Amino acid sequence: MLRLIGSGSYGQVWLARNVMGQFKAVKVIHRDRFEDARPYEREFEGICRFEPVSHFPSQVNISHVGRNDRDGYFYYVMELADDASCRGPKSKVQSPKSSQDGAVNAEGGAGSPKSKVQRPKSSEDGGRDEESRENSIQPESYVPRTLRSELKERGRLPFNECLDLGLALTAALSHLHNHGLVHRDVKAANVIFVGGQPKLADIGLVAAAEAECSFVGTEGYVPPEGPGGA
User: Fold this and answer.
1) Contact at 8 Å (CB) between 14 and 1?
2) Domain boundary assignment for the chain
3) Is the pLDDT of residue 116 over 50?
4) Taking the mean position of all CA atoms in its chain, how far away is CA 4?
5) Fewest CB atoms within 10 Å of the CB: 17, 20, 43, 52?
6) What is the DSSP letter of 201?
7) What DSSP string describes 55-103?
């Protein structure tokens, strides 16, 4: 655990480094932050439901969930957002391609004539990209790159980036809904960038789509009808 990089109503997010030197984010949720056990257990249950389906291009990947009932907390380890404090040129937001998109474009049926064909990255390419990203993270000054920080720095984003961002996030929501889950707290601060890829994060309020739920979410982002299903 290196240093605290974020905190909310119920928990804290820490910058951490594992024994292999990889940077991770660790969120710790304490029982004494809650008036009663139900919302604490709800958040834990949400993490347990989300972890098995978290390995999706535009979802934040959860690598470990732990719990310590003696000291009253649980935690989860997830991939770390890019470092906004030492970012180079603005990278274009890209939406993940579905297998159906790939099939159509490969056949030449529906792809735009101006679209650039990219070769799939090998594991060696991916390893170099990840190593480069790890080297760009400065623990002392690290600030997570989120959609909120992006908008604060750049103002309005170009149309194409907005489109790709919307496609990436709706793909993430569709993936959750297909597994019977809803997020219930979609907002700019909960969208992080990992290797330039937008990902839906802060999944503490993920719950079963059919579950009865109290009024949860963030003021200004909750639908007018209140938190609902998919």
Assistant:
1) yes
2) 3-114+141-208
3) no
4) 18
5) 20
6) -
7) -STTBPPEEEEEEETTTTEEEEEEEPPPBGGG--SPPPP-PPPPHHHHH
pLDDT tens track for 176-201: 999 888 887 888 999 999 999 999 98
Residue 79: phi and psi, rounded to 5, are -65, 150
Q: Which residues contact 32 (CB under 8 A, 6 or more apart)?
A: 72
Determine the pLDDT at residue 229.
67
How far apart CA 26 and CA 105 sit, in angstroms, is: 39
Distances, alpha carbon 96 to alpha carbons 58, 68, 82, 172, 188, in Å: 7, 36, 17, 10, 19
Highest CATH level, class, for 3-114+141-208:
mainly alpha
Give the pTM: 0.76
In the predicted structure, residue 227 carries a pLDDT above the cut 90: no
Element (H, E) at 43: helix 37-50
Nearest to residue 172, comparing CAs of 45, 55, 76? 55
Residue with tokens 């690598």: 63
In the numeric block, which tokens belong to residue 200? 């839906």
Instruction: For residue 93, count other CB atoms closer than 10 A to its CB.
Output: 23
